[in-house]
Amino acid sequence: MRRILRRREIVADDWRHLGEGAEEGSALIVPLVELRKDPERWRRWRGRLGVRLSSVDPVEELAADLPRLDLVAVEFPTPSDGRGYSAARLLRERLGFRGELRAVGAGVRQDQVFLLARCGFDAIELAENEDPDAARRALDRYDVAYQGGSPEVALRRQRFSSRPG
Amino acid sequence: MYQYDALDQSFVDRRVAEFRDQMRRHLAGELSEDEFRPLRLRNGLYVQRHAPMLRIAIPYGLLAARQLAKLADIARRYDRGFGHFTTRQNLQLNWPKLADVPDILAELATVQMHAIQTSGNCVRNVTADHLAGIAPDEVDDPRPYCEIIRQWATLHPEFTYLPRKFKIAVTGSPEDRAASEVHDIGLHLTRDAAGSIGFTVLVGGGLGRTPIIGQVIRDFLPLPALLSYLEAILRVYNRHGRRDNLNKARIKILVKSLGIERFREQVEAEWRLSRDSSPLLPAAEVERVRGFFRPQPYETLEDFDATSGREPRFKAWYRYNTRAHRVPGYRAVFVALKAHGHNPGDMSSDQMDAVASLAERVSFGLIRTTHNQNLLLADVRQKDLYEAWLELERLGLAMPNIGTLTDMIACPGLDFCSLANAGTLGVARQIQERFDDLDYLYDLGDIEIKMSGCMNACGHHHVGHIGILGVDKRGEEWYQISLGGSANGFTALGEVIGPSVPKSEVASTIERIVEAYRALRADGERFIDTLRRVGLEPFREGAYATHPAAA
User: Fold this and answer.
1) pLDDT above 60: residue B547
2) Which of 3.40.50.720, 1.10.10.10, 3.50.50.60, 3.20.20.70 would CATH assign to domain A3-160?
3) What percent of chain B is modeled with pLDDT above 90?
4) pLDDT band for position B56 (50/70/90)?
5) Which residue in chain A is spatially nearest to B41 when comparing CA positions?
6) Alpha carbon of residue B108 to chain centroid
């Protein structure tokens, strides 16, 4: 059973990616391209539904689907591909997504976790062979930051906070 | 200058601890070289031809004396007793040991310094005019805004893994001394009709493989919108900049492919949508930072002729190596790192210590680095100039050649850099030897030579009046010469004049070019002005006319 880091806890993953043998009615993460290919099938899906964005998928196109989605997974194919950080902030700050926002892919390493959480990811599905305990500790690598950011990371002080609501 | 508060200090201390852990994992085999590379690069650590290279950040080129002394100490204890100042106003150590780097970073943190984001595909050291705060023609001091941008860009959660490196320069004077038009973003301080401070924003400039001059994306950006607008530009770039080809990944390629109009539409649209959730730049924070850059406690003095009755060498130094100051009775003094027989930009630990101590005595304890690879003591009383000169002369740092042909820029080249195709330091020596006669240099006047050992253009060869680019020809070092580039005020890219020349011919080719200038110039006309007036052709003829070796 896959373990993920969710809101500072290491937990057993209750979601499956398409192709991992999900049963009808279970919690399933479907690539955006599959969602678009057969929208009827997924509209009828009885379980919780999540979508997986590749790093080139434009996140704005997901706006109309978000009310139906419990989870959005954003893929990081390598640690150096930083597009997903922008996708996350747009999902949280512009599109108002409040479901689980999950970082996935070979680029999700312990050294990325702090930034990922600051951009609004509340779930981290680490790349293979990455140590979840080290990743959890990485959330506390800094106790201050210059920018504002998601409350997923608890900081003592931030310099440039965003406009108060 | 800016002083860290508890937030800044905690950040750099934690950063050192994080890197120490990453280094430990790398040395233990838990992080492969490929995995470690993006992490070490974001802490300034390259692995070069002979050894690691550590690039230490000197934000907008400002150093306190105790910081320069610490750099001297680090270079002595962890390296070979010297460092190399770069065109981004930083300092490079060429021989540190890999495993020592966390300790070096910890040493730096004790004097409020770091090596964060001096390399890697992220926002790099923000650069500024080296005469910031003292230039007579200044609209406003750019350094507080550089400091604000530095902080905002440091470990930015969204923009730490960009398609490619990202360089920002801020200038506060009409004369651009920061090469801001060849930066990814250039910010020119200006005032609107109501007198409020803001910026003209340029985007998409850069050198490297595809040199492009930046274009104006916004005529006037009000100061409070600075960070939200930068975020909008960076977000469009982070999402849409190319990541499939390293050579096409800079923002200039995105701007070029979209055209400035469409790029501007995208940025402005992004900004309208995001500015309400973007970082604020509260007036109180601007004031806090500006408070660190107030004018020095200058004495009330009058200008006087410091050269009166002094020896000719001092007079020459005064003329070439000092600059006007906005406060009467003061001058800005260059610490020349271009002595003939030395590598441009190199400085020994002993020299650093001595300059730190000199700065304590005569320039409020502050030192600046310039993008031309010299240092500057910005606030020297005219009555202290002779004493300062004696000391700099003793240190070998008073070569009176600032602004002349041998005040050239050179990257470290093939001797150090793993990217280089050809050496630069040997060529620099060759040029220094050929042009060792000061009277001849003075007669030639203001000529900028800029030299890079490869097309990545760290030596800014595209914007040299005379540009020299090292190329590899079947395993031999050859050099392509370009003419007509400029980064001062009127930014222009040089044009290659013809076939490249072998290493042994570089200085003589340059000599023939400047001889062509001497024959063509009108009375008092500078090299670059003659070139612009008569065009390239006569120079090309001069360069190759008597040169059978060129192939």
Assistant:
1) no
2) 3.20.20.70
3) 90
4) very high
5) A80
6) 21
